[in-house]
Amino acid sequence: MILKLVDFGLVVLIWMTQLIVYPGFNYYSEAQLIEWHVKYTKAISIIVMPLMLGQVLLHGWGLLNDFSMIRLFIALLIALAWVNTFFFAVPLHSKIAAGTDVMDSAASLVRVNWYRTFLWSAVFVLSLFKSLKSQDLFY
User: Fold this and answer.
1) Cα gap 42→40, rounded to integer Å
2) In this structure, how many other beta carbons lie within 10 angstroms of the beta carbon of residue 123?
3) Greatest extent of the chain over all pairs of C-alpha atoms, in Å
4) Nearest to residue 85, comparing CAs of 125, 58, 56, 124?
5) How far apart are the first and last CA of the chain?
6) Within a 10 A sphere around the Cβ of 27, how many other Cβ atoms?
7) Distances (CA, A) of 60 to 36, 63, 92, 108, 128
């Protein structure tokens, strides 16, 4: 049950980010975005990092203790979401924080984030499907 809540939390967070937060960056001037971005990244990190770490730990534990191909596929999707986060999204956030290519980086976040949106949505759907298929609603 906790795992599905974590997965669902990331789905809600990523869709809100994709549809509201990142497009909202276009309504700031460059100076305002740089100022807001510092506050935003600190606040969102408090929410997203525990969810991401919890997801890795819970899915990793499940994979090690009850291996299946669907669990392996879910783990691969999570790994790809981490790659996207730390090799694509975080560098764009770093550019905004540094005041470099601020508006282009903000626009690029919307494009880059579609991958995470798809990946975390797929993880949630597959995790839910797996638990319904096995009738293990507490997985």
Assistant:
1) 6
2) 24
3) 52
4) 56
5) 6
6) 8
7) 35, 5, 28, 31, 16
Tally the C-alpha atoms within 13 A of residue 113's C-alpha that lie toward its C-beta.
Answer: 22
Which residues fall within 8 angstroms of residue 56, CB to CB, at 6 or more apart? 78, 82
- What is the per-residue pLDDT across 44-91, written as a single tens digit (0 to 9) for each? 999 999 999 999 999 999 999 999 999 999 999 999 999 999 999 999
Amino acid at 139: Y
In this prediction the pTM is: 0.92
Element of type H or E holding 25: none
Does residue 135 carry a pLDDT above 80?
Answer: no
Do the Cβ atoms of 119 and 81 come closer than 8 Å?
Answer: yes
CA nearest to 96, candidates 15, 34, 9, 29 = 34
Q: Residue type at 71? A: R
- What are the residues whose beta carbons fall under 8 Å from the beta carbon of 121, sequence distance 6 or more? 11, 14, 15
